[in-house]
Amino acid sequence: MWFVLAAAAAACFGLRGILYQWTSKRPLDRNLMLFGVYLSGTWITLAAALALRAPWTPAVGLGALMGLFSFISNAAMYKGFAVGKMSLMAMFTGLPPVVVALLAFAVWGERLSVWQLLAFVVIMSGLLMVRYSNDLSLRNLQGAQWGVLTMLFFGLTDFFTKQATLLGAATFPTLVVMYATGGILFCFIWLRQRGQALHAADMVRQARNETAADAQGNASTDAKDGGEPVNRTDGSAASSGSGPAAAKPWTWRRTLLWGMTVGITNASGMMLAMPAFKLGTTGLVSAVMAANVVLVMLYARFVLKEKFTRLESAGLMIGLTGIVLLKLLS
Taking phi first (over 0 means left), then psi (-120 to 50 degrees means alpha), and beta for anything else, what does residue 56 get? Predict the structure, then answer.
């Protein structure tokens, strides 16, 4: 049963990455969509917390930090899928355990065994091979910087998740605070950008009205001087119905509902992962859940038709092997 639950959680997290990539190519507001993701997570985890009557202790407040770091990592991952290679982003989304291991050593004194250190070296070797593949260079990192941010802040999220459990915080109330914090941040960014867009539209509208008023005044002056009013027609009016039609932006309702739909995959993955960890061995469960990276990579290869060079393919496989080894030996 633990294997089935862990595999289902991996499928959910892999589907989340695929949906992020698909959504990043659509004409919608990214921050509103991600607000929907966190809103959905808040409702789902809140319902679970109320149903289980989970205790709300002061340690639950660490969920606010988890929400802040999750906010940054999800925004970076979404941006990376939009501008970079999906295969490279998929690799970075599997690397937060490296960050967690280093932080655990620095803060809690948890040392890496020889085999864990070997796994770390294998991961870094795979990344270097990807980094120096034929189509990645210093001038063409293809979203690598967003992948690094994703790795770091997902790692910080996991680190503070562990810290919350050490302080005895209940899982579902902590997740409620995390999702609510991230949702508030994405909502704030969306409202601020929406206000700026409306202000810019008002400025454009005012400038057009002033231009029209000046044109009408000039026409009246020409008529008084004995000339005939000139029918002034700018190019924008004539071209309004010509040219290729751009994709129509999604409405805010459609964007929000889609974000809430995508959020189900994230919340479902977390809810499936918890009983899997309860029933199975931690290292084995984590190794199975790491398969979500493979799902995203297969999507990139066979659906998006991304071509891998030999060096890049070898680097991705070596890096994935290192991730599995790190989880098995942790």
Answer: beta
Checking phi first, is residue 53 left (phi over 0); if not, alpha (psi -120 to 50) or beta?
left
State pLDDT tens for residues 107-164.
877 676 777 677 767 766 776 565 555 444 445 555 677 888 888 898 888 788 778 8
Tell me the angle at which helices 30-52 and 62-83 cross, rounded to the nearest 10 degrees.
140
d(CA 96, CA 153): 8
Residue 85 and residue 142 in contact, taking contact as beta carbons nearer than 8 Å: yes
Tell me the pLDDT tens digit for each residue of 47-86: 999 999 999 999 999 999 989 998 998 788 777 777 766 6
The neighbouring-strand residues paired with 137 are: 140
> What pLDDT, on the 0 to 100 scale, is given for residue 258?
96
Planar angle of CA 67, 288, 41, nearest 5 degrees: 25
| Helix count and strand count (H, E) for the chain | 13, 0
Q: Please report, for residues 41, 221, 299, the alpha-carbon distance to residue 324 in angstroms, rounded to integers and kept in the order given.
A: 28, 80, 20
Nearest to 85 by CA among 304, 295, 289: 304
Indicate the pTM of the whole model. 0.73
> Strand pairing partners for 140?
137
Phi and psi dihedrals of 28, rounded to 5?
Answer: -135, 165
Helix (H, G, I), strand (E, B) or coil at 40: helix
